[in-house]
Amino acid sequence: SALGNGPPPTGVLTGPLSDAASVGDPQACSPLPGGSLTGTIALVQRGPCNFVVKVQNLQEAGAVGVIITNNPGDDSILSPGGLAGFTSIPAAFVGYDDGQSIRGYLNANPNSTASLNANLVSFPVTNSNQMASFSSRGPTLGGAGPVKPDVAAVGTSLYLAAQKYDPNGDLYSANGYIVSQGTSFSTPQIAGLAALVLQTNRALTPAQLKSAIVNTATADTTDGAALASVLAAGSGRANAGAAVAASLFASPSSVSFGAIKTGGLPATQLIQLTNLGASSLSLSVSFNRRTAETTAHISVDLPNIQIAAGATGTVALTLSGTIPAPGIYEGFVVIQQSSISLLQIPFVYIVPDGVPARIVAIAGN
Q1: Cα–Cα dist 143/138, whole Å
Q2: pLDDT in tens, 231-244
Q3: Using omega within 30 degrees of 0 as the cis cutoff, is the peptide bond preceding 188 cis?
Q4: Measured between alpha carbons, how far is 91 from 36 in angstroms, rounded to an integer?
Q5: Looking at 14-23, 83-92, 268-277, 354-363, which range is the least confident one?
Q6: How far apart (Å, rounded) are the C-alpha atoms in residues 22 and 16?
Q7: For residue 163, what is the DSSP state?
Q8: Please, are residues 93 and 70 in contact by the beta-carbon 8 Å criterion?
Q9: What is the pLDDT of residues 27-48, one digit of tens each?
Q10: Per-position b or e across 320-333, b if 16+ CB within 10 A of its CB
Q11: From CA 29, how far away is CA 253, in angstroms rounded?
Q12: Closest CA to 307 of 281, 331, 345
């Protein structure tokens, strides 16, 4: 769980556990009866209102602490913000499944107590390779629909330095540290990795720098129970050691044949391979197909290619056959030397069915 930026307990805060649903609004977005939660640690659903409104209503009902449970299907952990300066009781946040477990236990044991402890404790990480539910998925719109995102980095359950200046501002913590999440934090990790790569080889072009990071990533990230799609995690989680050591680079660093329509096959994309190492490379080119191909097939003109030190070679990828059933077809072009993978280049082609998967209103109703 993560404590919010309200006042932390001075020690371990223990009290009777209650559920806001038992006295009124289960989300505490509206006022609760005065004194209905006196002296208790209140369990409350996340809901549509701001955290500060929720905690204020619970505080006015007499609660001495709050446990906020996430929305159904979301086990990510947030740090409730906006509480400092407006509330005087601590608030903690837990994922949906943990919240349901607490509710189930409370229902079976109505006289249960709960404790809020601001001290950090270690716990085993069981989902470190999971894509965050809030991370944007591809493809991009327009043109050839390039693979996006390019690569993934850690964006959840981050213990961060926080600002202590403005209690009502973002990422405030009285002790200067906070648990938070967001792609805003994974992005600077990639920027830092780019700096490390350039520090090792200042002569790299922007395309080579991108390839060093993207094409050496580890493609073992999961999304739910399955391996993450190329359009969810790009090439996978960034591997700093492999990126810094890279001497073979691909341009482009990913290949998209876009949306395949009638008359769109065959189609060819070129990949330029540049060897900046000190010795010649004898390379093999193969495919790791994440989606089974049916009536369309991707192939390479040079399954084997030799590239001298300081030289460049080009391979052509061709998508041929007939248009398959609607779907997303993806995988990796794998560049190996002596069975050792040097680069993995994501590829994708899409056959649309013309049916919107999801419509989200960005304004009004």
Answers
A1: 13
A2: 999 999 999 999 99
A3: no
A4: 18
A5: 354-363
A6: 14
A7: B
A8: yes
A9: 999 999 999 999 999 999 998 9
A10: eeebbeeebbbbbb
A11: 48
A12: 281
